[in-house]
């Protein structure tokens, strides 16, 4: 049996831990051979491969990023994409494909599997933690750790200058990183994409914080938006790769808070620091277990499935279910955090 492995979409800490676990268990227990495909779906689309065996995965457990490279290439948007993938898989004598990715990469795996009989097993990843079929995705815990450490550091400089510090974290559609790091870091306001915020309310929280002689920290997810009528954000734009670029809600907030309250404000955009670097212990543990269970699914011929965390168990769910809808922050969880605002 020859197994192909690819990593697609935005990278995240823990991808290498999955690759290592898949290759180690597959080689040692099942005597499989492996081939790595470079840069997500671009690899099988163009037949771009890299050797993958136990020496190749030695030492990669704590390394961020992915030794296979990643891209957002979607074969369904390429001419003859499916045919080219099938041909290249046949050429490489690949019997099964382990696809490690988020909504887009796994969405492609789901369609290739259901509509074209390509034998795929999925492994969910995203720092955003917004895949509905799994309790947690790896990468999320590391991102929350990075954001929490940044908030801790920003508290002290905010206090020294009695300034407002706005921290913009990742999360286009879901506010999980903002909510978890905001709670862990003791933020005075947490703004998430699921609920439009009222800038008057944010300024009231900021002012009440200054009244007790503390400098406020506002954590905002990149996809958060002010409510209608308060919108002065630039339109989202699309870059030359076709990715939507958000318009800088953190910068806008700091300016607006300064204008309305007269208090000095600064913004820190954490951006890709949340995606880079070594995975946390939790993410290494989760990614490793996902890898071990994914290669078991290959052994069982259980294609069209994805491994998922439910409680402390790793289960298999249909790939189609995994990509059906985004997991957003429950309003109850969000309102629970409200007691710390202001
Ligand atoms: O989906 C993960 C994510 O990290 C989002 O939170 C963020 O908006 C996006 O990727 C950034 O993507 P890129 O690296 O393409 O700028």
Automatic annotation (TrEMBL):
Pfam families named among the record's database cross-references: PFK (PF00365)
Top EC class, one word: transferase
Catalytic site: 128 (proton acceptor)
SUPFAM superfamilies: Phosphofructokinase (SSF53784)
Binding locations of Mg(2+): 103
Domain of life: Bacteria
Gene3D superfamilies (alphabetical): 3.40.50.450, Phosphofructokinase domain
Activity regulation details: Non-allosteric.
Chief localisation class: cytoplasm
Localization per record: Cytoplasm
Binding site for diphosphate: 10
Requisite cofactors: Mg(2+)
The reaction(s) this protein catalyses: beta-D-fructose 6-phosphate + diphosphate = beta-D-fructose 1,6-bisphosphate + phosphate + H(+)
Keyword Transit peptide assigned: no
Protein name: Pyrophosphate--fructose 6-phosphate 1-phosphotransferase
Organism this protein belongs to: Streptomyces ochraceiscleroticus
Native organism taxonomy: Bacteria, Bacillati, Actinomycetota, Actinomycetes, Kitasatosporales
Encoding gene (name): pfp
